[in-house]
């Protein structure tokens, strides 16, 4: 099924930052941010056990449990089981991501994509989220950035385990849809070539942004559109660098990225728009993209995101990005060339 009929709008709320990614966020600030998203009409929320070892799910559940369950769409992820025993968060093996959630809970995280672990993960997430059902479940991070050369083995474990378990849950009506949530295009391209099982959608983070979109444009997005597999884009601000932050790919931004962002900002100012408007509207212009889920840790960021969607971006801006080599010529933009 297409998840476009399931999603309540084209923008949702990504909760990775609420797992204390990069910094320790006070509980009150996290709750106020989720509440601000709700108050301003956001009705799709995405989370994961990995985010702070369950912290983001707990924080999200505390707020959403006070709202009517039928009024919002909720997605989380499988592939990591959170244990009661503790570990040093800074010592976790998260591949290229290093100590990404070192400020989160100390609960031990176990990577497991088997069918049994998938079912356990779903049950644990329901408890942390204080809900009786999930709408969408993503298989999380079966890619090179977390597993290096072993990623194909992890993918195969998920294909024979999590994929089949989630297909069964979908067919039984326990969940409405399932897919894969990764930061790389290769696992998604591989999945589109499978005869079965068939996912409903993909969550792709960081690989379709103003700063990084060439690879996804080559094969993934055209093939996904052809097969009616919707794309939800995560990380539209490239870990924050496109929203005034200093992080790119979950670490300090390298010099060439800082320079590229400076060029985009200068062109945005020249055309009287905000860089957030450019980042979000670029993502949503591709016909394969069903929604975008920027994250936030401060309540005022929600209004910024919604305002960025509403701002009119002139075609001259996109034309300037193409002329300066920032934007691929085949990348769709919100305002098409009249020629």
Describe the model.
The protein is α/β, with parallel strands linked by helices. Helix content is about 40%, strand content about 15%. The chain has helices at about 25-40, 55-65, 115-130, 145, 150-160, 160-170, 185-190, 215-225, 255-270, 275-285, 300-310, 315-325; strands at about 15, 45, 75-80, 80-85, 105-110, 135-140, 175-180, 200-205, 230-235, 245-250, 250, 290-295. The strands form three sheets. The protein has an eight-stranded parallel sheet. Strand 7 (about 175-180), helix 7 (about 185-190) and strand 8 (about 200-205) form a beta-alpha-beta unit. Helix 1 (about 25-40) packs across helix 2 (about 55-65). The longest helix has 16 residues, at about 255-270. It is globular, with a radius of gyration of 19 Å. The mean pLDDT is about 95.
List strands and helices in order, with pairings:
Layout: E1 13-14, H1 27-39, E2 44-46, H2 55-64, E3 73-78, E4 80-86, E5 107-111, H3 115-129, E6 136-140, H4 144-147, H5 151-160, H6 162-171, E7 177-182, H7 186-192, E8 201-205, H8 214-226, E9 230-234, E10 247-248, E11 251-252, H9 255-270, H10 275-284, E12 289-293, H11 300-310, H12 315-323
Parallel strand pairs: 1-2, 2-3, 3-6, 6-7, 7-8, 8-9, 9-12
Antiparallel strand pairs: 4-5, 10-11
Helix pairs in contact: 1-2, 3-6, 7-8, 10-11
